[in-house]
Design goal:
Order of helices and strands: HHHH
Oligomer: single chain
Shape: elongated
Mean pLDDT: 84
Number of helices: 4
Structural class: mainly alpha
Largest sheet: none
């Protein structure tokens, strides 16, 4: 179903291989979630995460407009990436420069 919604019919394979490749996108999302959950969020972390998002904007643009392999539903992915980049900019402005451990009260 994901392939039918996000990939234009001329580029669809609807094969086990294409299902595997789409599953890799989900695995990447889980990996990103784990990274978010276990990171120590300093200014540097937000800057690196934000920089790592930049190639995804090119990917969205290229495969929706230049080589239209993906449908306009991928605008949701673009929006999500833009939202995460905004959070990175906000985090970079507000996070501490270095990680400060929180010690339990005595």
């Amino acid at each position: 179903m994901v392939e039918r919604l996000t990939i234009n019919p001329a580029y669809q394979h609807l094969s086990p291989t294409s299902a595997l490749l789409i599953g890799c996108f989900g695995a990447q999302a889980v990996l990103g979630g784990l990274f978010i959950a276990f990171s120590r969020w300093t200014r540097r972390t937000f800057a690196i995460y934000g920089a790592a998002l930049l190639p995804f904007f090119w990917f969205n643009y290229y495969f929706v407009f230049v080589v239209p392999a993906l449908t306009r539903w991928m605008a949701l992915d673009f929006g999500a990436n833009l939202f995460m980049l905004g959070i990175c900019a906000w985090g970079w402005r507000t996070a501490p420069s270095e990680w400060e451990p929180v010690l339990p009260r005595q």
